[in-house]
Design goal:
Blueprint (H helix, E strand, L loop, with lengths): L1 H19 L12 H4 L10 H4 L2 E7 L3 H17 L4 E7 L3 H6 L1
Parallel strand pairs: 1-2
């Protein structure tokens, strides 16, 4: 009988604690969808802040897929007006890249 009561109390505690996570944290002051969904607006960086930035992109794509990655990176670098440059580096097989 004692074990049964303890089990029921533990189940009740688990149910209550899991339901508290479903509660509302507060009311939204604005009716905009972006605030209701929890997303926030992000301001883009100025060109002067990103000028000369180089991103090194490691990948494990060889053959046709590697050519496609390189073509996408080349297109990005040509069209980018923010001063950001992406440099692709082939890292070998997937296992090699994971270890790095």
């Amino acid at each position: 009988m004692k074990k049964r009561i303890i089990a029921m109390v533990l189940c009740l505690v688990c149910i209550i604690s899991s339901l508290t996570g479903c509660g509302s944290k507060g009311k939204s002051n604005s009716g905009s969808k972006s605030q209701e969904n929890g997303s926030t607006a992000v301001k883009a960086a100025e060109k002067s802040d990103t000028e000369g930035t180089t991103i090194t992109f490691w990948h494990s794509m060889g053959g046709v897929n590697g050519d496609a990655i390189n073509a996408l990176i080349k297109k990005f670098n040509e069209e980018n007006k923010s001063g950001i440059t992406v440099k692709a580096e082939y890292q070998g097989t997937y296992d090699d890249a994971i270890n790095k």
